[in-house]
Amino acid sequence: MAMLPETSRRRLLLGAGALGASALATGCVANDPPQERSAAPVAAGGDNAEPGKHVRIGFSAPAADHGWLAAMTTNARAQAEKLPDVTFRPTEGSTDVNRQIAQVETLINEKVDVLVVLPADGKALTGVAREAMRAGIPVVNVDRVFDSPEAYRLWIGGDNYGMGVNAADYIAEQLRGRNVDDPVIAEVAGTDSLPLTQERSAGFREGLAKHGLRVSRRVAAEFTAETGEQEMTNLLQAASRLDAVWNHDDDQGIGVLAAVEAAGRDEFFLVGGAGSRQVMDRIKAGDSVVRATVLYSPSMCSSAISLARLLGQGRGMSDLAEHEVPRSVTTYSAVVTGENVDRYLDIGFAS
């Protein structure tokens, strides 16, 4: 579109303004009632619960060698089974990136209607996801984002930065309530080389800074229970006093809590991450240092299947006015505490 010269553009704006003022004055003199504006339609997607065109959904995720990952696949399958107009075509999970690429290629060749992919490595799977999109198969990218937006129609995942911020806000509130001066705050991170860990740590660090607080001690536990126990043991030996701990991941938290109990330490409170059922049960029981967990729920994979169905049927979301499914959905990292834990027990996953 060609740009108007500045003087012409100014005349156009002034002319439009004069026309608007004239119309407004005419309306006021005539005492005409204001014209009713047509409201945007709601429920443009129709009733999403109503069965629609049958959709064949291909699904690919890494091997379930972690409680959270296992729950992602379990949730996807369970959601598909609830939908009478969906056929679920999963592949066998693998930690081998090349094998996952080959499995996605198989689903493309089978001409599934929609693909739901949780990539073991977003960058490595970008090429095959773009291949699917070029073949006319919409791709729902779950959590670990592909390198190119051309590789997916929809991304759905968690808010890693927000997870850290919400953990920081909760810890700051609890410390204020306990009148703790100059608190010693520890962080048990996941795998430092992963962007998600970096984002969680950045959110936690910057969230604490808002309250005039900082991370005093930090270790990385690689998202495993074994390393969690080892790193927490080292942390406890190095710190004679702790006031609060944020552990990024409830799966590695199994080891973290084992180390805490073995050391007999209970002068601090601990906030978990992700939302395992075991941690929620500990929160509800109130019999340990665990006081909360910040959600990064695998229920996002259930939602991914439901959204893939709507994409395959050419429908929007019934609660939105838009006729299309959104481009991206970011889940919220709610803080689960003793006060609200019953509300979230249904999405707690097995570590």
From TrEMBL:
SUPFAM superfamilies from the UniProt entry: Periplasmic binding protein-like I
Residues annotated as domain Periplasmic binding protein: 57-310
Coarse class of the protein's main subcellular location: other
Gene3D superfamilies recorded: 3.40.50.2300
Alphabetized Pfam families for the sequence: Peripla_BP_4 (PF13407)
Location(s), subcellular: Cell envelope
Keywords: Signal
Family listed: Belongs to the bacterial solute-binding protein 2 family.
Protein's name according to its UniProt entry: Substrate-binding domain-containing protein
